[in-house]
Amino acid sequence: MLVLTRKLNETIKIGDEIEVTVLAVNGDQIKLGIQAPKSVDIHRQEIYEEIRNENKSASQITLHAIDMLKQLPKKK
């Protein structure tokens, strides 16, 4: 993990297209601004985990449905 120190209004560049800027500091919270191409998904960690779990559940349901369909008698 790379650890950087930034002050208010300072920016971190990630590659050529992503910038993370410190917009505000209030006690133990900071506000970050992120500029990135629309093709880059940006989520808070807890939201990312929810999305990942939902996708995993959906894929398991789909696989289960496919298995059930395979067990149906075939029409002649």
TrEMBL record:
GO molecular function annotations of the record: mRNA 5'-UTR binding
Pfam family, one: CsrA
Family per similarity comment: Belongs to the CsrA/RsmA family.
Lineage: Bacteria, Bacillati, Bacillota, Bacilli, Bacillales
Entry keywords, A to Z: Bacterial flagellum biogenesis, Cytoplasm, Repressor, RNA-binding, Translation regulation
NCBIfam families with a match to the protein in the record: csrA, PRK01712.1
Tree of life domain: Bacteria
Species the sequence originates in: Priestia aryabhattai
Chief location bin: cytoplasm
Self-association and partners: Homodimer; the beta-strands of each monomer intercalate to form a hydrophobic core, while the alpha-helices form wings that extend away from the core.
UniProt-listed GO biological process terms: bacterial-type flagellum organization; mRNA catabolic process; negative regulation of translational initiation; regulation of bacterial-type flagellum assembly; regulation of carbohydrate metabolic process
Protein name: Translational regulator CsrA
Key word Cytoplasm present: yes
Cellular component terms per the entry's GO annotation: cytosol
Compartmental location: Cytoplasm
InterPro entries the record matches: CsrA (IPR003751), CsrA_sf (IPR036107)
Functional summary from the UniProt entry: A translational regulator that binds mRNA to regulate translation initiation and/or mRNA stability. Usually binds in the 5'-UTR at or near the Shine-Dalgarno sequence preventing ribosome-binding, thus repressing translation. Its main target seems to be the major flagellin gene, while its function is anatagonized by FliW.
